[in-house]
Structure prediction request, 364 residues.
Amino acid sequence: MDNYSAAQRRLKSQPSSWLVTGVAGFIGSHLLEALLKLDQSVVGLDSFVTGRRHNLDEVRNRVDSSQWKRFNMIEGDIRDSALCMKSCHHVDYVLHHAALGSVPGSLMDPLSSHESNVSGFLNVLIACRENRVKRLIYASSSAVYGDSQEIPAVEGHIGRLLSPYAASKFINEVYASVFAKCNDLETIGLRYFNVFGPRQDPKGAYAAVIPRWIGEMLEGRPVRINGDGETSRDFCYVADVVQANILAATAERAESANQTYNIAVGQATTLNQLLQLLQKLLPDRCPAIVPCMAEFGAFRDGDVRHSQADISKASQLLGYRPQYVFERGLAEALDWYVQNLNGASVKLKSSAAIPGDKPLKSAM
Prediction:
């Protein structure tokens, strides 16, 4: 039995209590779904600034009614220290994913980025300490590698930071280390590399590249590429991020705690390769789709040229094993993207939907 299956079996037999901040977000809602399916009790905290109520509706329709009753939703902001303290009460594990996650957004409004990502994180740390939480797992980012030229990226070697967002995530790692040393609080930071999958928001000026491009292709618009298309990313399917969180929370080896880990696949894909793959896969699901042209523009401020992870540390200390190479994850996510992107007037070639899907209920 692999480590992830073993961890799931242990949780199923010995349920715990969890807090998921940013629970209505893309990653947070997947964490909620996975935990409820393991019969865990979950407190969710979200301000709905970037989180979406319909993500919670989707989770509710993908779990049993008895499992859904184990979920307690608290609406509020991590900048509220008293609310963070209340949310951590009687909680065993905290999965912290509430943040303002946009690099361009942080360049335009660094103060808001700092208040949510740093001050909010500090509130969560203090609440975890005061409530004697067993372990805090928090979302860091590959952005902390900045202009490092080392490929693949190794946890101990970072470059100069390129955005306020990157700075906020690095400061989180510093604070987590300090609290681990001074307050005996176990923390683990997960440096995510370009996560994608169902429930990823395709809207807005700073939408992630995969849902944005799919939306543009479905609407027959040119795909916009920042730079020459040879920028590369290590795309990680959201199911592997869920795996990493559960493994990090339940890891029993003492040396696994108070660390940061790269969470990715370890496979670099250029934007040009991504476009070619979408052009190959989408027509199989959408026969009416027309070939799209690419429009090349300037490189975006704050972006790194190449990003690829060395995942050996997570493999050795957490037992992390990616289950989705990029092509498999993209193929699995495409049906959801096609069915949920607004403005798409095309139909799937097959009627295959995400297993377990039901019509969404009204928002909570």
Observations:
- The mean pLDDT is 90.
- The chain has two domains: 3-193+237-264+306-323, 195-233+269-301+325-359.
- The radius of gyration is 20 Å.
- DSSP finds 13 helices and 13 strands in the chain.
